[in-house]
Structures are given as structure tokens and as C-alpha cells.
Design a protein that fits this description.
It is globular, with a radius of gyration of 14 Å. The termini are close together. With 136 residues, the chain is of the alpha+beta class. 36% of the residues lie in helices and 28% in strands. The chain has 4 helices and 5 strands. It has one domain: Histidine kinase-like ATPase, C-terminal domain (Heat Shock Protein 90).
Length: 136
């Protein structure tokens, strides 16, 4: 399988931190993943995981920054699809003690590989996840 390097495959999107924009995220992910020989169920799993990561970010947002933005990036490293959800206004990662956040993070970890939730030194929170491309 000949896959572009990360630099040549990077696609980024910034959306308002509002649930009605999740449709745009799902379309982005679906279009991006469909460039590769991936089974339909894998495309659907990735769409769910990325949408849920956006939901987790939105739920964990500082109410004072409700009009902030989320950054979504899609890229490829070797034979893996990589996705990052970046909330520059968040002050801490989604609360894993909350039932809703725990369920969301569990779903993401079930559907994806190498899931990492981290607070950035310069502020903000990033949820990153990877998935090995499985050819059809």
C-alpha cells in the first residue's frame, strides 16, 4: 500500500464549539478515510470515535469560552490514520469521573488505537487517536 507521508496527507478543519457542526466533522472524516481501501464498518467506527471526541471536548469546555473553536486534523503515518481534536480554550481534559465522559472515552478507546488525552503546556486539551488501515 502506497500511502502519503504525514506532511502531504494533513487535512485540518476548525469549527465552532457547537453540536450542530458535528455533521461537518463526520463528512470530513468520511471523505478523508474513504480515500484509502478501508472497509465501510471501519469508516463508520472512525466517524463515531472522532465525533465522540468532539463531544467530549464540547462537554468539558469552560462555559465562559462557549464560543470557542475546535481544531480537527486528519493525517497518515505509515499504515495508520491519525486524528486529533484540539480545544485551545479547554483548561483540563474531559472529566473521566463523570459518567458521560467516561462512557465517551471508553467508546473512543474501543473503536480506535493509541488514544491519548492530554493537556498542552501552553493551554488547551488534545484528544489524539490512531487506527491501522485495514484493506478491503
Amino acid at each position: 500500500m502506497n500511502i502519503d507521508t504525514k506532511a502531504h496527507s494533513l487535512v485540518e478543519l476548525r469549527i465552532p464549539r457547537r453540536p450542530e457542526y458535528l455533521r461537518v466533522v463526520r463528512l470530513l472524516v468520511s471523505g478523508y478515510v474513504s480515500r484509502f481501501p478501508a472497509p465501510v464498518d471501519m469508516v463508520e467506527d472512525i466517524k463515531v470515535a472522532v465525533s465522540e471526541a468532539c463531544n467530549c471536548s464540547m462537554r468539558g469546555a469552560d462555559p465562559a469560552c462557549a464560543e470557542g473553536r475546535l481544531g480537527i486534523s486528519c493525517s497518515v503515518e505509515d499504515d495508520r490514520l491519525c486524528f486529533e481534536i484540539r480545544d485551545e480554550n479547554a483548561t483540563s481534559p474531559p472529566d473521566s469521573n463523570s459518567d458521560e465522559a467516561s462512557l465517551g472515552l471508553l467508546l473512543i478507546r474501543t473503536l480506535m488505537e493509541d488514544v491519548e488525552v492530554r493537556a498542552e503546556k501552553d493551554g488547551g486539551v488534545v484528544i489524539s487517536m490512531k487506527k491501522t488501515i485495514i484493506s478491503v
